[in-house]
Amino acid sequence: MGRIYLDNNATTPVRPEVVEALAGMLKGCYGNPSTLYCVGHEAHVEMERARDIMAGILGCNREEVIFTSGGTESDNIAVLGAARANRKKGNHIITTKIEHHAVLNPCKALEKEGWQVTYLPVDEYGMVNPADVERSITSGTTLISIMHANNEVGTIQPIAEIGKMAKARKITFHTDAVQSFGKLSVNVNELGADLLSASSHKIYGPKGVGLLYVRKGTKILPIMFGGHQERSLRPGTENVPGIVGFGRAAELMAAEGPAEEARLLKLRDRLWEGIKAKVPHVKLNGHPAMRLAGTLNVIFEYVEGESIILSLDEHGICAASGSACTSDALEPSHVLAAMGVPPEKSHGALRMSFGRENTEEDVDKVLEALPKVVEKLRSFSPIYKDFLRQQTA
Amino acid sequence: MAYSEKVMDHFRNPRNVGEMTDPDGVGKVGNPVCGDIMELYIKVKDDTIVDAKFQTLGCGAAIATSSMVTEMVKGQKLDDALKISNSMVAEALGGLPSQKMHCSVLAEEALQSAISDYRSKKGLK
Lengths: 393, 125
Ligand SMILES: Cc1ncc(COP(=O)(O)O)c(C=O)c1O
Ligand code: FES
Hints:
The complex is a heterodimer. Chain A is an alpha/beta fold. In chain A, 44% of the residues lie in helices and 14% in strands. Chain A is built from 13 helices and 13 strands. Chain A has helices at 16-28, 38-58, 71-85, 101-112, 130-136, 159-168, 188-191, 240-278, 305-314, 334-338, 343-346, 360-380, 382-392; strands at residues 4-5, 65-68, 92-96, 116-120, 141-145, 172-176, 195-199, 210-214, 282-285, 295-300, 317-318, 320-321, 349-353. Chain A is globular. The two termini of chain A are 44 Å apart. Chain B has helices at residues 5-12, 60-73, 78-81, 86-92, 101-121, and strands at residues 25-30, 37-45, 48-57. In chain B, helix 2 crosses helix 5 and helix 4 (86-92) packs across helix 5. The interface between A and B is medium-sized, with 24 and 27 residues.
């Protein structure tokens, strides 16, 4: 049985071209890029080539690209580093309720250190209202951090509009573009971002490497201290093979461009149309139009998400859920909660996220398995029984 | 996190799943931690549980422990059935991941609630 991997928002399979680039670096290019002799210089050249690729995608200068250990570190440097660097100016941060924990938890840590944080609400589609951002700005606001595209439901935020607002008020603006980098346009000038996070493993690159774009002149402090690497903002000998692999992955995403996104969109919509036709009592989560092409988040009422995932796994299908039962904290998805989805509904949330290895045949196989899985689980469900009884009463 | 083969077997092929027509006792409980729901139905004859069925909305561990508890109680005297604890159910399944132990509490509570429902209906309390 072939595996159908539908969890590309969690991570992606490393693509063969990237494996080749990584292997090449691991085998032959071991030098420390900070050194002067030839092997070090070779490593430096390869790393700077990757930096140029990123600068091309972001529309920025290569000095503005800082390589990190991933999206989480980029978000931490952005939030903690920009907040602390502007401490004298003010202590107010604006973010949203639907950020990744890599942004939310640094904000919570800052609250303990005396910062004020506004967590903006979203509408039923997971969209932030720019007017809410505007209204929340105070004289003490020094940082706005709002994600580009949400990892759970895929909703794409009005970043450019918020970026303009931040610029007019001279407030540092960070966007977590981990889910959009390589997929949507992330030109930092169009978005108006001063800081932008991206991660390699979401675009078929290796895990444990990412980047933070830092606009020239942005006040920011490091969160780690050591050598002079990455403009001292991210000290430590760089993960050169990882960076080169990330560069290759980004280069290939840029080359494929909108054609691949259009293909994913077709797959996603085929799956959703099929689900709607075959399974009663389902609901789409996320924005109908402003949504990542590969993201489909659906609530199957009267069933629980972990049990769907386990059952799909029996059919060789890998997916994710927003159910409380699948989280270590046993709390339902904070994103769905912010969208006003009550816990008993988010219990049945299933996220299927597409990637370059998925085909139409995969969708059809999911459409074979999924209705049976949901039907079986509903047949065990006491609340489905109660619901059916109410229907006939 | 991974479930034991036995948990997966009971999840895949739950024993005694479904509603019971005309049960002697019903236990309906909810898991306050994550919101899961279990209903356990028992048939009692001569102070002994002669049949048990369940319906559960919940995670793999919740469904597997529900299934296992129905197997464990059949043929048990009521007083003996009341001694079945959640950790005994988990053990019978070859153990549960630590963050899933709370799910087995559902099975224990549903059993106790079904027995006390039976006893109060009979005026035995
Ligand atoms: C929106 C978002 N931000 C940050 C991260 C963290 O990235 P990383 O896994 O590279 O630390 C993720 C990945 O899960 C994400 O989806
Ligand atoms: S019952 Fe919800 S986690 Fe098991």
